[in-house]
Amino acid sequence: MMKSNKKENAISKMDIPIKKFLKNRTSRRDFLKWVGFSTASVTLAACKGPVIKSIPYVVKPEVITPGLPTYYASTMIDSFDIGSVLVKTREGRPIKIEPNITSNYFNTTSARIQSSLLSLYDEERLKNPFINGNKSSWNQIDNYVISHLEKISKLKKDIVILSSSYPSFSTKKLIQDFTRTYPTTKWITYDAISYSKALDAAAEIFGFRAFPLFDLSKTELIVSFDADFLGDWCPENMSHSYAKNKNPEKSMIQHIQIETNMSLSGANADIRISKKPSDIEKMLFEVYQTIVLKKETNSEIVKKITDLIQKKGSKSVVFADGSKEAYIFSFLINKKIHSQALQKNKFILSKESDDEKLKNFIEDLEKEKVGALLIHNTNPVYSLPSSISQKIKKLLRIIPMTISFSMKKDETNELMDVLAPIPHWLESWGDTHPVTGIYTLIQPTIQCIFNTRQFQESLMIWGRKPEKNYYEYLKNIWEKEIIPKSNVSSFQEALFHGVVEVEKEENIIHKKNILSNNYDKQEYYIDEKNRLDKNFELRLYTKTSIGDGHQHDNPWLQELPDPITRTTWENYLTISYDDAKKIGIKNWYTGTGAMNGHCVDLIKDHKTLIKNIPVYIQPGQAIGSIGLSFGYGQKIGKFTQMIKGKNAYVLYENFHLIQKNIQIKKVNKIYKFACVQLQNTTVGRNLVKETDLETFLKHPKEIWNEEEKVFTHKGMLPPENISIWNDPVVKEKDKRGHHFHLSIDLNACIGCGACIIACHSENNVPIVGKEEIRKSRDMHWLRVDRYYSGKENSEDEFFIKNPRVSFQPIMCQHCDNAPCETVCPVGATSHGEQGQNMMAYNRCVGTRYCANNCPYKVRRFNWFNYANNQNFDFHMNNDLGKMVLNPDVVVRSRGVMEKCSLCIQRTQSVIGVAKKENRKIKDEEFETACSISCPTKAITFGDVNDKNSHILEKIQDQRNYKLLEFLGIRPNVSYQLKIRNLK
Q1: In which band, very low, low, confident or very high, does the pLDDT at 975 lie, cut at 50, 70 and 90?
Q2: In Å, how far from its chain's centre is CA 76?
Q3: Distance between CA 976 and CA 960 in Å, rounded?
C-alpha cells in the first residue's frame, strides 16, 4: 500500500489507461491494491468525472463510500430470462445480484439471472465495432450504415430488425420512430425456444396474444401434463407462489405430474405418472372431453384425475405443454372449472415469439425482398432447426447489408457485414413491460468497460432522433406516458424502486373471444398416426443451468450440477432402463469413482442428425421416449473445447418440443461424465425425513418425526444431553449475544440450485473444470443432494420405473460440538460465540483431518491455486474476471481447507451498522447469500436468541429435525420434515 507523506496533503493523482490495466498481469497483492484503492477505471466506472484518482478521493463521489456496498434497483433481461433485481456494487463494481422484493412479479433470482453478472467481466466480449472483419470506429459505422439504409429505403426493400423477445415500452416507441424515417422497416421477434404455440392458443381462447398469468398461492390441486412449471414452462418463475401453499395444512397443494422426462416439476410432485408424449396428449384430450364436453372415458387414470379436478373445482388448475392444441385444452379446462389460479385480465408480456412471422421472413429472404438485416441479441444460425439453419447461412450472404448487435462472437455474426457490439445489461439504460400494468427500469451500475453502444442508441443516430442519447429519450417517454398514470411521482422515484404499477392499462384490452366457443361445442381429434410407431419419441427440454444457451460460456452455470442427473459441463440423451437394456447401453463407474457411458447416433428419416451423443440412463424416464436438453453444442466460445455437448436445436423442427420417429444407433465411443453425486439413494438411512399429509394431520409427532435417542450407561438419552464436555447443556444464562441458526424446509425446497450460485457469487468459490469434477474435487460450499425412494424396497420399483425424488441442501452444519475442530492440529478451525464454525485460512496447513472427520462431507480442499493458474482458465485467471470477486471474502490458496461460513461477513456487517446507529437489529436484517436468493424461501436464517425471530419459530416447529443428530455433535442447521399429499 502507499505510505503517507506529511509534506503531501493528498495522495498523488494517477491516470491509468484501461488497456494497460487489462493487458498487464498482476499479483494477488497488486490486485487487492487495485480493488482497495479503485485506481482501475473499470472499478470507478460508475463514478462521474474525467479524472480517475486513488482513494481517498480529492472529491469523493457521493454514491461511493469505500468498504460499504451500494445497491441499485434494475432489471435483468437477455434472450431468455427476465427478473427485477437489486445490484450490489462495491467501489463501483457490480459484485452480486439479489432479488428486488418490492416487485410483485419476476421478483426471484434464478441461477441464470445471478450468473449473468459474470458475463459483464468476460474477457471474450467484443471490445470494438467492426466492418467487414476490420476494426472500425463508431463514426465510420454510422456513415456506412446510414448511406446503405438510405439506398435500401429508396429501393423499397425491407429493413428487418430480428430480435429475441424484448418487451421494452421505450424501444417499441423508438422503432416506431425509426420506421417513420425508414418506412420499410419490420420488427420480427424470434426466440430460440419458441413460446409461439402457447401465445397462439391464448389468442384463440382469451382474445389476447400473451401468456396467461397464474397464481398458485390458493390452489389445492395441480395437474400438469408434461408442463415443467417449476422450470421454464412459464416465462415467470412459479415456484414462489407454488411454495406458498406447501405448508402442511388440510388445504395443502396436491401436485400430480404426468410427464416424459424426469423434470424439476415431476421431482417435486406428490404423484408422478410416467408416460411418453403421445400417451400424454391422449390423456389430456380425454380429460378435456370428460370435463368440458361431458363425455365418459374408459381410462381409470383419467377418471381419477377428472374426479379430483371436479371435486376441487375452482381450486384446481391444469397445465399442459407441447402442441398448440395441448395449450388450448388446458386453457379451456381452466375456464370451465373457473380456476382461481388463472388471473383475470393479467398476462405475461415478456415473450412475443411468432413462428408465422419468422416463416414469412425466410420466404422474403428467398425472394430477395430484404435489403438490410439488423440482428439483435439472438443467434439464429446456431439455434434454428437444421432444415432452416443451412438455408439461413446461404441467404445471409446475399443480403446487401447485415448488422449484428451482440456482446460476443457467435455463429451468426461471423457472417455479418457490421458488428456493433452492445453493452451488458449492467452497463445499459432501458425499460421492460413484463406484465400487464407493470413497468420496470434498467439502469447502468457501471459505465461501459469496452467501446460498445446500445442497440437503441444506434437506432436513434441512424434514425436522426433529436435527443442526445437514449437516456434522455427513455426519461422523456416515461415522464410523458408512464409516470402520470403510475404509483410514483417522478422518474427518479421510479428509478429508485426499479418497478412501477399503472392503474389502467389502456393498450391492453381483454377482448371477448368467439373461437373458444367452437372448442366447447365440438370434438377435437388428435392425430394418432404414429402413436404405435416402434421408434422413439424425443422430448426436448431446458436445463435450469443453461436454459436456451445464451450463457453457455458462463463457468458458474456450466459447473452448476443438474438438479436431477447431478451432472455438470454437458448435455446427454436420457433414456429409460428398459430401453437401454434392449439396445445394450450402459452407464458404469470406474475405479476412480467417476461415471462413464455409451454413446449413440440420433437418426431421423435415414439421416444422422447428431453423432456420438452420450446416453444417461434416467430413472423415471418414460419407456419408448428419450430426452435431450437445449443450449449446448456451440462452435464458438472460450469453453467449446471443454464442453462436449450437442446442439439439440437441429432437431427442433417446426419449433415443436416433441419429435417423433427418432432412431438411435449405438456406437463404439465411450463418454466420460462429470457427476458430483453417484449415490442415488440413502441406503435405508433416515436422512431425508418425510411422511404423508394424512399421517401428519392425524397422528402425533412421535409417529412421523420420532426423536432420536442414544443408548448410554444412563439409559436412552437425547443426543443434546450427551457430550464429551463436562456440561453438555448450555444454560440459558450463558446464552448471550447472537447465536445464529439456519433452517431448511424440505417441503419448500425444489432443488433449483439458485442458492449454489448465490454462494459462489458471495464467497468467491472457484471453478475447477470438468476433469477435477470427475475426481470429486468440486468446490461447491453448498450442494443439493438428490435421492430416489419408493413404496417398496425393491430396485425395480423405486430406482428404475418411477421413483419419488427428494432434495436436501447440505452445507457446513456449524456443530456446537464440531468433530472437525477437535482434530485440527494447528487450530485453524474453531467455534465462535455466535454459533459459527470458523476458519483461519492462514493457519491451515492442509492436513485434511477435518474433512475426514466431518460426517456431512462439506469441507472443500484447495488442491491447486485456482486463481492465476493457466490450468484453470476461468474468471479468476484474468484481471477483468477478478473484478467480480467480493472484497469482503478472501480468495483461498493451495493447500487450504474452505467451507460455508454462514456468510459471517454479512452478519458482522449488520451487527456493525446497528452498533454504529445505536439501535436494535431487526430479524429480517440477518440473511445469508443462499437464504436471500432462495425463490421459495425454503432457507431461513437468523438469531435464535431473538425470541421473536422467524428462525426460532422454525426450530420449535414439530417438523424440525437435525441431520445425523444421533452423533451428538449438535448442528446449528436444522431441517423441516418433507410432507407429501398422497390422499
Answers
A1: very high
A2: 12
A3: 5
The strand pairing partners of 664, in sequence order, are: 602
* DSSP H stretches of helix in 705-769: 754-763
Query: 818, 970 in Cβ contact below 8 A?
Result: no
pLDDT at 40: 41
Give the pLDDT confidence score for residue 505 in this predicted structure: 64
Contact 821, 837 (CB under 8 A): yes
Residue partners of 603: CB distance under 8 A and separation at least 6: 609, 662, 663, 664, 665
Q: How far apart are CA 872 and CA 521, in angstroms?
A: 63
Q: Which residue has the cell 467501446?
A: 451
3-state DSSP call for residue 936?
Answer: coil
For residue 701, the one-letter residue type is: K
| Cα 636 off chain centre by | 23
Average pLDDT, the chain: 86
Other residues' Cβ atoms within 10 Å of the Cβ of residue 245:
17
Exposure letters 725-750 (e unless 16+ CB within 10 A, then b): eeebeeeeeeeeebbbbbbbbbbbbb
Q: Which of 154, 80, 142 is nearest to 110 (CA)?
A: 80
Q: What is the pTM of this model?
A: 0.89
Q: Distance between CA 778 and CA 794 in Å, rounded?
A: 32
Which three cell numbers mark 181?
A: 424515417
Contact of 520 with 332, CB cutoff 8 Å: yes
Q: Is the pLDDT of residue 45 over 70?
A: no
Q: What's the pLDDT tens digit per position in 791-824?
A: 654 444 556 778 999 999 999 999 988 999 999 9
Q: How far is it, in rounded angstroms, from Cα 420 to Cα 374? A: 10
Rounded Cα–Cα distance for residues 903 and 759 (Å): 9
Would strands 316-320 and 130-131 be described as parallel, antiparallel, or unpaired?
Answer: unpaired
Residue 506, classified by CB atoms within 10 Å of its CB into exposed (0-12), middle (13-18) or buried (19+), is exposed
Q: What is the pLDDT of residue 390?
A: 86
d(CA 97, CA 115): 8
Q: In what order do the strands lie in the sheet with 401-405?
A: 134-135, 130-131, 418-419, 401-405, 370-376, 158-163, 185-189
Q: 927 CB contacts (<8 Å, ≥6 apart)?
A: 903, 906, 941
**Could you write out the three-class secondary structure of 8-32?**
CCCCCCCCCCHHHHHHCCCCHHHHH
What's the Cα-to-Cα distance from 527 to each of 258, 281, 463, 532, rounded to whole Å?
Answer: 20, 10, 49, 12
Which sign does the torsion angle of CA 339, 341, 345, 350 carry? negative
Beta strand pairing call for 829-831 and 837-839 = antiparallel
CA distances from 300 to 269, 271, 296, 305, 329 (A): 20, 15, 11, 9, 20
Query: Cα separation of 911 and 164, whole Å?
Result: 45
Residue 7: what pLDDT? 33
Helix-, strand-, coil-residue percentages of the chain, each rounded to 5: 30, 20, 50
Among the listed residues 92, 46, 100, the one whose alpha carbon sits nearest the alpha carbon of residue 74 = 100
Beta carbons within 10 angstroms of residue 13's beta carbon: 10
Q: Are 896 and 847 in contact (CB under 8 A)?
A: no
Which amino acid, residue 966? F
- Burial category of 660 from C-beta neighbours within 10 Å (exposed 0-12, middle 13-18, buried 19 and up): middle
Burial-class residue 81 by CB neighbours within 10 Å (0-12, 13-18, 19+).
buried
Three-state DSSP state, 593 = coil
Cβ proximity of 474 and 430 under 8 Å: yes
The owner of cell 449438535 is 970
Quick check: 829 and 783 in contact, CB under 8 A?
no
Instruction: Select from 676, 81, 125 the least CA-distant residue to 423.
Output: 125
